[in-house]
Amino acid sequence: xxxxxxxxxxxxxxxxxxxxxxxxxxxxxxKANMRKIxxxxxxxxxGEICLYSFIIIILTGVYLTLFFHPSMNEVEYxxxxxxxxxxxxxxxxxxxxxxxxxxxxxxxxxxxHHWAALxxxxxxxxxxxxxxxxxxxxxPREINWVFGxxxxxxxxxxxxxxxxxxxxxxxxxxxxxxxxxxxxxxxxGTYLSFFLFGGEFPGGDFVAxxxxxxxxxxxxxxxxxxxxxxxxxFYHKHTQFPGPGxxxxxxxxxxxxxxxxxxAGGFFFLVFGVIAAIAAIATINPIWxxxxxxxxxxxxxxxxxxxxxxxxxxxxxxxxxxxxxxxHTLVLGVFIPLILxxxxxxxxxxxxxxxxxxxxxxxxxxxxxxxxxxxxxxxVGVAWISEYIVLLIGGGNDMFAQYFHLSINAITWFVxxxxxxxxxxxxxITKRICLGLxxxxxxxxxxxxxxxxxxxxxxxxxxxVHEPLSQDKxxxxxxxxxxxxxxxxxxxxxxxxxxxxxAMEKLRVxxxxxxxxxxxxxxxxxxxxxxxxxxGHGHH
Length: 540
Known about the structure:
The protein has a domain at 35-369: Cytochrome Bc1 Complex, Chain C. It has helices at 2-9, 12-24, 26-33, 45-65, 91-101, 106-134, 142-164, 169-183, 189-197, 206-236, 256-281, 309-317, 332-347, 351-359, 375-395, 397-403, 408-447, 471-478, 503-516, 527-534, and strands at residues 37-38, 74-76, 88-90, 254-255, 323-325, 328-330, 449-456, 462-467. Helices cover 60% and strands 6% of the residues. The model has no long low-confidence stretch (mean pLDDT 89). The protein contains 20 helices and 8 strands. It is mainly α.
């Protein structure tokens, strides 16, 4: 009887919670996971910016779909923007003008959507570079690295299909650029173009098709990848920077609930506020200044969004080579950049597997590297970024020529030469800087920190007093693992039978020596060296 009375007295909310928990098991699931520990470091917020930007894109995109008409049917504009009244345009362009001038808050939402997309791709690249430089992609996170790379690529193409939807002169020029690249594909190029546009360019269907791809196909795939990415982050536990008490078997930080969730919630609104402020202050994509797309027109200074500048730069810098075979023209000036684009972009995606093969390391890694302690990897990352920047300059060669009063031909030749030379120079310089920083760390470990205090010794010599490092600092500077270069080993066994050494094994050994051999990493100070210095054979 008392049990029934207790049930009647339970609050309604508790009864609903008990009912749901009895069917979904939420309480036990939350109890096991809500207190999960996450480490705290400012660089981990880069991934959060990606997530929050994506949420903002979804929220503003839902609002914009309520008013956008994805149709290329021709209509005469009679909206409130007077300079365009009476102009023939597609329904897509007309509805975008209506969103910008007649829908309450429409222009602000449009700009938040566009700025959030730009920030989303930028944050993904910076986040991936943080993961790359710190070695967070190593086992067991190689698959998650690939998921992140796919999110980056899909984000780029989702942005491209998105800014093509208004059917304005700028986006139409970008679509024409893409169609030309598709046509350069041997044999199947024309078929692909006809399939995509429903006939001769621009056809009457591409806005509707891009609309379906933009709001359904690509975001759906991205949502699945994002959920899988977060599940793996949760399952593998978050990486952490080395320090006292931090090992591969623990995580030092704050619990997910309530500390981390409170900070994450506040950071989401901070990101939303910054993006909204940028959107309110800085105009982006003012289509009313450009007018509707016409196949025989090209807007002055036509530039894609920055993340599509790399393929644009490849095609602008490529010489206009053509080959005529059997009555057919192969446009190498477009087709070769079309092949190079995924190679340059994808080279960074396969690095975790290349590094794992070179090192032969099968251990799990939950502690991050300091970039200076992996000189070759860091140099490869900087070389890739420098390549990206060179191609961005190529994608805007006309704008650089206009604003800096330079020859467009000189800029084009700089991009052609820089495509090969700049990454090599960036690699060499970065590697030397990393080795120099390693030497400085070793000097700190052995001799301590420079204090700026000058001391005169009894025999008249002046020396600078060094302050010994704390144990915490010593641990941070010396806890990293140093690989030993791979060796081919004996080619003849104890029975005198010669072992055949394959080409791949020779390549692996050569690459291993190039990454970890003499001159490619500075050996850490030994305990004996440290004790000898600390015993008095130095000035402190």
